User: Fold this.
Amino acid sequence: METVIWQPVIHGKKHNIVVRYFMTNRDIKPVTVPVIILNGIGEGKYSASKSLKTLIALGVQSGYSVILPFSQLPADEQAITLICEQVPVLIAQKAMIDTGTKHVDLIARSQGGGAAILAASKNPEIFRKIALIAPFGLTNELLGPTMLAQRNAILWRLTRNAFKNIVLDYGAFRGGVEIGGSFLLEFIKNRLSLSFNAALKGDLQQKFLELSARYQERIALFTSVDDEVFNHHEYKLSLPDSVNIIPTSGPHAASASKVGQAQLAKAVRWL
Assistant:
């Protein structure tokens, strides 16, 4: 595992945040564009390492699997927005320096998808192609009329989804334990509701539509009718027909699960 120090200024105070990620062999000089993965909320070392192994198995020469540091900063809108806008760019800049390339490809899952949208909106010139697997924040209006209703709907769906799918395979179990432990810690610290509230405040749908118009076929959503958290049909109802939506299969999956790895592989092949 690798680390890089990120120094955001939040509410006038400078922080030193350790951003953790896994990367492919630094001694191999790639001939292709680096691929960066933004894993979902609560996913840690196990999930990130499994995602990188999938990249390697598919022949990706330069890959970076990032653990977004949501738990290291205050659970407020400014902190979450800065994580989403700046951390993917920090890793992208490192990848470009490591490989001597001018662009990177970006794959993001669930809440990582929200981070990808915000980062690419601020720095579209860095990212060549963007694959979003069941991204957060594009179907909010179908989840409820208020932020409270939307937050409760997502939490209920995530909880139900976890109990239904955690026994599918060992990766799903390990990933589910990792995510569940993170959620429990956030709940104990009274941060879970604050984190979701802050994430729901961002106008991700409008930013995504602007990105979609700019990138056109270079940005895609990978969605599933079996996903009970962010469903394929809800994306179709919430977004115009011009959006590039690629159907996939399986539930809202942890990155480390067999389903999650299959969804990731489909996104990698699309790049």
Notes: The mean pLDDT is 89. The beta strands are 2-6, 9-10, 13-14, 17-23, 35-38, 63-67, 104-109, 127-133, 219-224, 245-248.
